[in-house]
Amino acid sequence: MSSSNVQVGVVMGSSSDWDTMQHAVAIFQQFGIAHEARVVSAHRMPDDMFAYAEAAEARGLKAIVAGAGGAAHLPGMLAAKTTVPVLGVPVPSRHLQGVDSLHSIVQMPKGVPVATFAIGAAGAANAALFVVAMLANEDAALRQRLQAFRAEQTAAARAMTLPPAGAAR
Fold first, then answer.
1. Which of 18, 37, 49, 81 could bond to 10 as cystine, CB 3.0-4.6 Å?
2. What b/e string do you get for 67-76 counting C-beta neighbours within 10 Å, with b at 16 or more?
3. Residue 15 counted as an annotated binding residue
4. Residue 17 annotated as part of some ligand binding site
5. Is 158 annotated as a binding residue?
6. What span, in angstroms and rounded, lies between the C-alpha atoms of 141 and 120?
């Protein structure tokens, strides 16, 4: 996507976070939301991270979806340097399965909010869908696409069947 029309940044602390964060990108692609995806490590490239956050508003970003694992400082540090809404996605970690990441992101101090989502792929997708809903407040066509998406989910759930009781699994 051309950087001049990018509305949403999807950032992660490492390329290994892509397995999780690609689910946010897929939602933005599905809805036609102009976005960018990049690695911006809080610990290995803090100057780049601060520059990204400080330029976000001037570049026209409406939201930043930030995925991080382990100590998971990226979402909070971005939020500390911009007023653009930051949505945090805890990336599953090797030893604590992302619970460490969740606690790190959700426990922001009063005054510097980060909207925090579930650990892993569901959190990345839901963070993106939340951004879609925010943008849909100002875009009737996008609102219609979101309503259609929700209707498709409802239809799929209604079409689900269960195996007969006592059936072997």
1. 37
2. bbbbebbbbb
3. no
4. yes
5. no
6. 29
- How many beta carbons lie within 10 A of that of residue 36, not counting itself? 17
Task: Tell me the domain boundaries of the chain.
Answer: 8-146
- Which CATH fold would you assign to the domain 8-146? Rossmann fold (3.40.50)
């809080």: which residue's tokens? 42
